[in-house]
TrEMBL record:
Highest rank taxon of the organism: Eukaryota
Keyword Nucleus: no
Alphabetized Gene3D superfamilies for the sequence: Tetratricopeptide repeat domain
Name of the protein in question: Pentatricopeptide repeat-containing protein At1g16830
Gene for this chain: LOC104230927
Intervals holding PPR repeats: 9-39, 79-113
Coiled coil: none
Gene source species: Nicotiana sylvestris (Wood tobacco)
Keywords assigned by UniProt, alphabetized: Repeat
Length: 230
C-alpha cells in the first residue's frame, strides 16, 4: 500500500492493530505500535485506545498495564475514552491502587470521569472491601451528581454485611445521600428494608443468628445500625 504511494491514516493503523490483537498476534501488534510511536510524534489517542483495548481483550493484562503506565506519563496522549479503558483494564487485572492513581491523574489533566468510570472505581474498592475509599468515591460522585449503578449498590449491601467495624458509618453516609438522586431509589429502599429485617432478626433470635447467612456484628454495632437506618 505504502509502496504504491498511499499514505496510511489512523484508521488504517487502528484496523491493523485490532486485527493483530484479535488473531492473537500480540507481539506483532506491540511491535507495530512501538514503530508508530517512534515514527509519529503526538500519536493520536485513538491508536493508543485500540492497542490497550486489544491487549485487554486478549487477556494480556501485564502488557496492557505496562503500556498504560508509559502512556499515562505522557498526559496529552490519553483522552477520556483511553483513560476509561485503561482504568477498566487495571481493575480487571486486580490493580485497584494503580487504577485509582490513573483516575486521579485523569481529573488532574482536566478530564471529567464519566458515570461508567466512577462506577468502575467504586466497584473496585467495594470488591476490595475498602470502606474508607468507598465512602470517598461516594462523596466525589455526590459532588459530581453522578448516579451509583445497581451493581454497586448490591456490592455495598454485601460490604455492609462483611464489614462489621465500618458498616454503621457507610450506612449513615448512604442514608444521608439517599435523597440526593444519585442512588437508585427503589433498590436503595429494598436494601434498607432487608437490613432492618436482619437487625430485627438478630434482636429476636440472638442465640440462633449465627445460623443465618448474614454476617454478625457486636450488639453496640447493631444498635448503631438501627440508628443509622432510622
Amino acid at each position: 500500500m505504502i509502496d504504491r504511494g498511499f499514505v496510511a491514516d489512523k484508521y488504517t493503523f487502528a484496523g491493523l492493530l485490532t486485527g493483530l490483537c484479535s488473531s492473537g498476534r500480540i507481539r506483532e501488534a506491540v511491535k507495530v505500535y512501538r514503530g508508530l510511536v517512534r515514527d509519529h510524534s503526538g500519536l493520536d489517542s485513538h491508536i493508543i485506545t485500540v492497542i490497550i483495548n486489544g491487549l485487554i481483550k486478549s487477556g494480556k493484562f501485564h502488557k496492557a498495564v505496562s503500556l498504560i503506565k508509559k502512556t499515562a506519563s505522557e498526559k496529552s496522549q490519553l483522552d477520556d475514552v483511553s483513560y476509561t479503558i485503561a482504568i477498566s483494564g487495571l481493575l480487571t487485572g486486580g490493580q485497584v491502587g494503580e487504577a485509582y492513581t490513573l483516575f486521579s491523574q485523569m481529573k488532574e489533566v482536566g478530564l471529567a470521569p464519566s458515570k461508567q468510570t466512577y462506577n468502575q472505581i467504586l466497584s473496585g474498592f467495594c470488591k476490595r472491601s475498602d470502606v474508607c475509599m468507598v465512602k470517598e468515591i461516594l462523596l466525589e460522585m455526590l459532588d459530581a451528581n453522578t448516579e451509583v449503578d445497581h451493581y454497586n449498590l448490591s456490592l455495598m449491601k454485601n460490604l455492609l454485611y462483611r464489614s462489621h467495624r465500618h458498616s454503621p458509618s457507610l450506612l449513615t453516609l448512604l442514608t444521608n445521600i439517599s435523597n440526593s438522586g444519585i442512588l437508585p431509589r427503589e433498590a436503595y429502599n429494598e436494601m434498607i428494608n432487608e437490613l432492618v429485617h436482619h437487625v430485627n432478626v438478630r434482636s429476636v433470635h440472638a442465640g440462633t443468628f449465627n445460623n443465618l447467612d448474614v454476617c454478625t456484628s457486636s450488639s453496640n454495632e447493631t444498635q448503631e445500625l438501627v440508628v443509622a437506618v432510622g
